[in-house]
Amino acid sequence: MLKRLTRWSRIKSPWILHLNSGACNACDIEIVAALTPRFDVERFGVLLKATPRHADVIIATGPVTRQIKDRIIRIYEQTPDPKFVIAVGACAMSGCVYRGAYNIMGGLDQVIPVNVYVPGCPARPDAILDGVIKLLGKL
Amino acid sequence: MKFTIPIGPQHPALKEPISLRMTVEGEVIRDADIRLGYNHRGLEKLAEERTWIQNIYLMERICGICSHSHTTCYVQGVEKLMEIEPPKRGLYIRTLVAELERIHSHLLWLGVAGHEAGFDSFFMYTWRDREVVMDILEMISGNRVHYAMNTIGGVRRDLDDLQVKKILDGLEVLKKRTEYYFKIGANEPTFVARLAGVGYLSKERAMDLCAVGPTARASGVTRDVRKDDPYAAYDETPFDVCTADTCDVLGRTVVRIKELFESYKISEFLLKSLPAGGIAVKAPKRAKPNEVLSRYEAPRGENTHYIKSNGTDKPERLKVRAPTLANYPATVEMLRNGFIADIPLIFAAIDPCICCAERAVELVNARTGEEKALRFSELRKLADERFKNPSLKRNAVWPF
Questions:
Q1: Is B61 helix (H, G, I), strand (E, B) or coil?
Q2: CA of A114 to nearest chain B CA: how many angstroms apart?
């Protein structure tokens, strides 16, 4: 009974944290666009949170620069369990055009575990929505 | 007593990773130190390993908001190196996309400013209307954010009559909506009161610190590359440089709203006088050894690219100076003697694009003041005095 209740609440209102790990802003503005009236991800109960301690889902963009690597790990550890990570954009998947640059880790999964990958450079808001819904469906 | 408050790199008020260290006395900021490098990806080094054409797509990904700015700046420089002249129609389309990008960027900024001022419905309104211009850009280029319109020697996609009509219709809608935002200023005293007097930057200091773009123009400095050093089709386009003399965040908002109207005007002019002909010329593979400095007025201010060629199909050196980097010293000046609660607003007011600015790590100096222990009663007395004679004058008047 309790298990069903927690599962229901998890699916009905996932709170997200937007994490920029050295992205070019394109995916970031598309994530914000997904939150605004045209696409409105809030109708699925998704709420943008400012601190990792409140978040269930981390939406991360960017190819992970060396300087921000430790911070990402810290933010991931600060997020309470169960936590899920959505990697948005080609950079967060593999590094995109920056692949091979000296300051790039080349993808988010080099640093923290990732649950959902959303491709695109940048990913469209509809694709980001789809990624969030697919994650909710998996729960 | 002075405290140092670290803000960032991951902070609710910041959308991008940057670290600010504020030295505060009570609630007043005495000094600010900006630490960069969280977003440094090493693009300039990567650019040296890629050909001229490949670099267009790399330059586009310096920043997602001003993606057309960086490619245009780069492509203009390379065209000068290769000594080719793009056809008129190509230049007009390039300028049109640049202006549409300015519209989308300024609408985005208005929303962010509303959000930072605690006016979230304004944020939702502007972002809803921004979708109109995003649709136009998608129709022209096939993508919402990275347009990939520029190529060396012109643009990659042409416009047809139906598209021209659709763009004009979209601009009509946007114009009406922008007029509505303009009125909001007059009807929303709380919004104006929140912005007026915050982040003061005098005209002299703006000149001294080499502020660029709307930040400089809001301090009364008439500085616009489109007017001073016309590129693309700007020398044939009539438009005004928008300035404000309030020198605060309110002025920066006003300048951006006025620039929106100018951008609508420019886009309509370009569409109505679109010349016939080709859109691109063929570019050679190699460029002769030479160097060039290309300037471009991005939505955030002057963007410069320095390109050096050595006779091969790759650049020898590519240096990017984005407008946000030029505005950092001015930001420190604006933050000084402001309140902690104003930090997000002041910082948002330069429209920071951190990913643009992350070329090299640069530290802005922080004065090391001597420490003096104060008792709580003394601190309170100081605070009382401060609030009796505030250094910041807050006169809440919408300047129209």
A1: coil
A2: 19
All domains of chain A in start order, with CATH: 13-138 (3.40.50.12280)
Q: Is B168 exposed, middle or buried (0-12, 13-18, 19+ CB in 10 A)?
A: middle
Tens of pLDDT, residue by residue over B280-294, are 999 999 889 999 999
Which member of B10, B123, B131 has the closest CB to residue A71? B10
Q: CB contacts < 8 Å between A and B, how many?
A: 115
Q: Where on the phi/psi map is residue A96: left (φ > 0), alpha (ψ -120 to 50), or beta?
A: left
Contacts of B10 in chain A (CB under 8 A): 19, 52, 71, 75
Residues in chain A with CB shorter than 8 Å from the CB of B11 are 50
Q: What is residue A32's three-state secondary structure?
A: helix
CB neighbourhood size of B53 (10 A): 13
Q: How far apart are the CA of A66 and the nearest CA of chain B, in angstroms?
A: 8
- Residue B61 contacts A, CB cutoff 8 Å: yes
DSSP B6: E
Q: What's chain B's Rg over C-alpha atoms?
A: 22
Rounded mean pLDDT of B348-356?
Answer: 77
Q: Taking CB atoms and an 8 Å cutoff, what residues of chain B touch A38? A: 127-128, 131
Query: B211 near B323, Cβ under 8 Å?
Result: no
Question: What DSSP letter does each residue of B155-190 carry, written as one string?
Answer: ES----HHHHHHHHHHHHHHHHHHHHHHHHHHH-HH
Confidence of residue B364 (pLDDT cuts 50, 70, 90): very low
DSSP string, A76-128: HHHSPSS-EEEEEHHHHHH-GGGTT-TTB--SGGGTS--SEEE-STTPPHHHH
- pTM to 2 decimals? 0.88
In chain B, list all ranges with CATH 1.10.645.10. Answer: 43-198+228-233+274-321
**ipTM surpasses cut 0.95:** no
Closest-CA residue to A60 (of A11, A112, A134): A112
Rounded Cα distance between B217 and B258, Å, is 11
According to the 3-state scheme, what is the secondary structure of B341-367? HHHHHHHHHCCCCHHHHCCCCCCCCCC
Q: Do B40 and A96 touch (CB under 8 A)?
A: no
Cα nearest neighbour of A26 on chain B? B64
B60 min Cα distance to partner chain A (Å): 9
Tell me the CATH number of domain B43-198+228-233+274-321, given options 3.30.420.40, 3.30.200.210, 3.90.226.10, 1.10.645.10: 1.10.645.10
Yes or no, beta carbons of A22 and B38 under 8 Å apart = yes
CB-based contact A124 B144, cutoff 8 Å: yes
